[in-house]
Design a protein that fits this description.
The chain is of the alpha/beta class. Helices cover 43% and strands 13% of the residues. α2 packs across α9 and α4 runs parallel beside α5. The chain binds S-adenosylmethionine.
Length: 334
């Protein structure tokens, strides 16, 4: 669907008619990607990070968290557990941990690929040669949010980082044939609705395959601890608009949405989302990967979470996706 920036801003600000927007996004979702909801098993394998993003609980300047880095064997064991439960995609996420070597990551990818799953990486900015190596070892998808396209805001929030470099990394990832996931946080300080509209048009322009949209939730041990944070409603409206703009992409109902409201994930699935990303990290390390406080489902065991989500999905008349749940352009290969 073609929408002007002005129309997008109108949709984002109109909270009175948001149910109509959610309903339309739900119809577009059903028509284009069907009723299946695909599971992705998220492994948070390291909270070591070289960056100090002002909003993030695992920023290197936060001295109050215990740092950890799982070994390739530990990661592979978590993946095997998830695969036994039925997961067909494993997402490997970490801070920007350059101490986790390219060789170790390649080895981990190869071991997990033997389990017949799709692999998504979400490990931030790396060198072109590394992106190439991971791809050659079998990584299928890459998730890296641009966070905001307002360059001034980006540079305020990300000391010593460059918006242009992050953009170039996204382009490298795309060129290497990964399915590309990107997205933004909603409710960042000084982020206007016009800026969010620009973000959505940017995501469409770079032809992402997956959009991760989540509210910013202030973390008490960060410089943004006293900020207000994003609301679930605006995050859902933002997500619904990207569904209208890009009818056939994959859109997760994010954990941050569930964190803000107990029913947040289901509301997202009813407003355009078609993917869920349960955490399959062991509960000890999960608690150390604290991007924001009170993360949903923090103490819920993996199999319990899988069962609970399955029930919730079926209760709204949806089905559990079979197969890898790739973007439609690639799903013929499944
Ligand atoms: N290091 C990788 C990267 O840069 O893409 C992946 C890990 S990073 C911690 C994953 C995502 O968490 C970020 O893209 C950001 O949008 C989100 N995030 C971090 N802190 C957050 C907060 N306080 N509230 C909501 N989301 C947050």
């Amino acid at each position: 669907m073609k929408l002007t920036k002005q129309k997008i801003v109108e949709l984002l600000e109109n909270s009175d008619d948001q149910d109509a927007l959610f309903h339309l996004a739900d119809i577009v979702r059903k028509k284009n990607v069907g009723d299946s909801v695909f599971f992705r098993g998220l492994i948070e394998f390291s909270n070591v990070c070289r960056n100090s993003c002002l909003y993030c609980g695992i920023r290197c300047k936060n001295m109050q968290i215990k740092r950890y880095r799982l070994t390739p064997e530990e990661i592979t064991a978590l993946a095997r557990n998830a695969v036994h439960l039925g997961f067909k995609t494993i997402v490997l996420q970490s801070g920007e941990d350059v101490g986790f070597s390219c060789a170790d990551l390649c080895h981990t990818i190869e071991e997990i690929k033997k389990m017949d799953v799709a692999i998504t990486l979400s490990i931030g900015e790396r060198e072109y040669e590394e992106y190439t190596a991971f791809r050659n070892c079998g990584a299928d998808r890459y998730l890296m949010r641009i966070e905001t396209t307002d360059k001034k805001l980006y540079h305020q929030l990300h000391p010593k980082m460059s918006w242009q470099h992050r953009y170039e990394c996204l382009m490298m990832i795309k060129e290497l044939g990964y399915e590309l996931g990107s997205g933004i946080m909603v409710g960042l300080p000084n982020q206007s609705l016009e800026s969010i509209a620009d973000d959505l048009l940017f995501l469409k322009k770079i032809e992402i395959d997956m959009a991760g949209i989540g509210p910013f939730i202030p973390h008490p041990n960060t410089p943004l601890k006293n900020c207000v944070g994003g609301t679930l409603d605006l995050s859902l409206r933002t997500m619904s608009v990207i569904r209208l703009l890009m009818p056939d992409i994959n859109i997760p109902a994010t954990t941050a949405m569930e964190t803000l409201e107990k029913n947040g994930r289901i509301r997202a699935l009813n407003a355009g989302a078609n993917v869920v990303m349960p955490n399959v990290t062991d509960s000890l390390h999960r608690s150390f990967y604290e991007l924001y406080p009170n993360k949903a489902c923090l103490n819920v065991g993996v199999s319990c979470c899988y069962g609970c989500l399955t029930q919730q999905i079926q209760s709204i008349g949806r089905t559990i996706g079979i197969g890898y749940g790739s973007h439609l352009k690639n799903s013929v290969k499944e």
